[in-house]
Structure formats: C-alpha cells, structure tokens
Amino acid sequence: MTGVSMPAGLPAVAREFAESLRAHGFDPERAADRQVMCLAEEVGEFVGAYRRFTGQARRTGTAEEVRDELADVVLAAFVAAYELGIDLAAAIEDKTHTIRARGWRTR
C-alpha cells in the first residue's frame, strides 16, 4: 500500500464553503473559532446518529443518517483546516505514513 487516495476536490469545497460563510455575514475574524466548534458539533451529531442507528438511543435512526453525519464531519474538518491554514490532505498523507510505520498489535 502506498499513498492515500481521497476526493481531490475537498480542499476546493472547503474554500468555497468558507468564502460563502464570509459572503453571508459571518465574522471572518472568528472563522477559525466557528469552524472548530462546528467540527465538534458535527462529531456530536454523528455520534447521535450512530447511537440511534445501533439501538442505543430512545429513538431509531438509519444508516443514511449515519452516512450523512459522517460526511458533515469530514466537510467540517476540511473547512476548519482551511480556516487554520492547514493542508489537511498533506496532513492525512503524513499521518497515514506514521500509522503504517507503527505496525499493528499482534495477537
């Protein structure tokens, strides 16, 4: 296994979303704060959707809700990275190499 393949358009989508938020009146000086909190919120929504889907909540949920919330997490992470000046695609590539180099626990 070499390299990491991901949708190449995610950084461009993140830039588009960030610019759209600015164009709609969101304070650009608070953009990083907003996106970090947005990411945390989306992770919470993903966990909630998973709990509902797996029967660990008062109401039920669907696999599609889990999928959609997980997509929100990824998008929010890319927008947060854009606002923080992080090349997330490169960071993911670097982290992938680090994890692979660690090896895996043997049984």
Describe the structure.
It is a single chain. By secondary structure, the chain is mainly α. It has a domain at 31-97: Orthogonal Bundle (Helix Hairpins). It is built from 4 helices and no strands. It has helices spanning 10-23, 31-53, 63-84, 88-102. The radius of gyration is 17 Å and the shape is flat. The protein starts with 9 loop residues before the first helix and ends in a 5-residue tail after the last helix. The mean pLDDT is 93.
Cα end-to-end separation: 22 Å
Supply the number of helical segments: 4
Largest sheet: none
**How does CATH name the architecture of the domain at 31-97?**
Orthogonal Bundle
Strand content: under 5%
Fourth-tier CATH superfamily name of the domain at 31-97: MazG-like
Radius of gyration: 17 Å
Q: Determine and state the CATH class of the domain at 31-97.
A: Mainly Alpha
CATH topology of the domain at 31-97: Helix Hairpins
How many strands? 0
**Morphology:** flat
Please state the structural category: mainly alpha
Q: Indicate the low-confidence ranges by residue numbers.
A: none
List SSEs in N-to-C order.
HHHH
Task: Please render the helix and strand layout as text.
Elements: H1 10-23, H2 31-53, H3 63-84, H4 88-102
